[in-house]
Amino acid sequence: MLDRLFKILNSLKLTVVLLGFGIVLIFIGTLAQVDEGLYQAQTRYFKSFLIYWSPAGSSFSFPVFPGGYLLGTLLLANLLSAHISRFKLTRKKIGIFAIHSGIILLLMGQLLTDALSTESAMQIAEGQSLNYSQDFRSSELAVINATDPKEDRVVSFPESMATPGKELRHPELPFSIRVLNYWENSALFDSPTNGASLVKASKGYGTTAYFLPLKPTVSMKDRNIPSALVEVIAPEGSQGTWLLSSQTSTPQEFDYKGKTYRLAVRFTRYYKPFSLKLESFTHERYRGTDIPKNFASVIRIQRPATGEDREVKIFMNNPLRYRGETFYQAGYHPDNDKLTHKITILQVVHNPSWLTPYFSCALVALGLMVQFGQHLFGFVQKRRTA
Question: CA 61 → CA 28, 49, 92, 94, distances in Å?
Fold first, then answer.
């Protein structure tokens, strides 16, 4: 049984079939970006083992096509098994060995990048310090213990756990959070405009704000504004219901047993053991146009644990690499010319395997040079002896 499986894995026919599936996957995944958006299409088609389809009006789904992770894993297994069964390492085949090793490393590196890397952003105004970045494509339900004026204790639940009817618990919380409803996209108004209506919240701004559920957006230029209707359940009973929305930066606050807690639905945050303070931001344009020529941020890195306090300059094509993360000058606030304190936008990338593509490409290049050099040397030797 194992011999038969190994024979199938190292088959050239399997390679051709997998490459064919890959071409089809790229085609349908690219088309899906029109309706589903770039990131959702990437997650569904390329960052999955199976692609599921649900019939119209049904609540169940079943797999219909292999996803990118499955195809990549099978291609890697196919390449490794072919090497084990057919390839014998000799001096003449060192170049081929290096080329194939580079390809294997490239496949494994991409898998590690998808599994381990995170992308987020920091929007910092001049004079402001931040010790966290935000992922504007995902949200979290945060419970903040704000009793200590010097330090907040934060417990957060990812939006995947915000299922209507589910109770969220954590050992640090003396109560649970019951999710009554969750909307991936929504809008708040001060009056009943555009069909908005009042929400049945007993406390907070949800008692007077008008709420309108919206269809999730797939545009790269727009962001979803998630909202949730939650109830705080303590051993003594319900403490009230609150409407939470990332449209407003004001958390909902309440007291329980002498402690102050805040509730918020916000974009996912990644806290750092250091803070970045924006000292200044400059934006240069080409003369007579609004086309950016260069924009740069002078950042002060402050890390109390080690006493580090220094300035660095981040500008286009010159990122800051610090503590395993890369900070790129990604953009700026569109209304900076009108603001007293300019705002910079830094993209933060955490990718532990960021060197893997460089190593794999170098290995492939080395293998090609060795293989070509061996053939060239043999050809020259034959010409001399002829």
Answer: 18, 15, 52, 48
Helix/strand/coil (H/E/C) assignment for every residue in the chain: CHHHHHHHHCCHHHHHHHHHHHHHHHHHHHHHHHHHCHHHHHHHHHCCCEEEECCCCCCCCEEEEECHHHHHHHHHHHHHHHHHHHCCCCHHHHHHHHHHHHHHHHHHHHHHHHHHCEEEEEEEEECCEEEEEEEEEEEEEEEEECCCCCCCEEEEEEHHHCCCCCEECCCCCCCEEEEEEEECCEEEECCCCCCCEECCCCEHHHHCCEEEECCCCCCCCCCCCCEEEEEEEECCEEEEEEEEECCCCCCEEEEECCEEEEEEEEEEEEEEEEEEEEEEEEEEECCCCCCEEEEEEEEEEEECCCCEEEEEEEECCECEEECCEEEEEEEECCCHHHCCCCEEEEEEEECCCCCHHHHHHHHHHHHHHHHHHHHHHHHHHHHHHC
pLDDT digits (tens, 9 = 90+) for 284-339: 878 877 777 788 999 999 999 999 999 999 998 899 999 989 999 998 888 888 88
CA dihedral 36, 189, 152, 261 (to 10 degrees): -120
Per-residue pLDDT band for 192 (boundaries 50, 70, 90) equals: confident
pLDDT digits (tens, 9 = 90+) for 362-371: 999 999 999 8
What is the pLDDT, as a whole number, of residue 200?
Answer: 82
* Ranges of each domain in the chain: 2-117+355-385, 119-129+271-350, 134-268
pTM (2 decimals)? 0.77
Q: Is the dihedral of CA 88, 89, 91, 93 positive or negative?
A: positive
Lowest mean pLDDT of 1-10, 93-102, 195-204, name the range: 1-10
pLDDT in tens, 108-127: 888 888 878 889 999 999 99
Q: How far apart are CA 268 and CA 372, in angstroms?
A: 50
**Could you give the angle at the alpha carbon of 233 between the alpha carbons of 153 and 147, nearest 5°?**
25
For the CA atoms of 9, 11, 12, 16, the dihedral, rounded to the nearest 10 degrees, stands at: -50
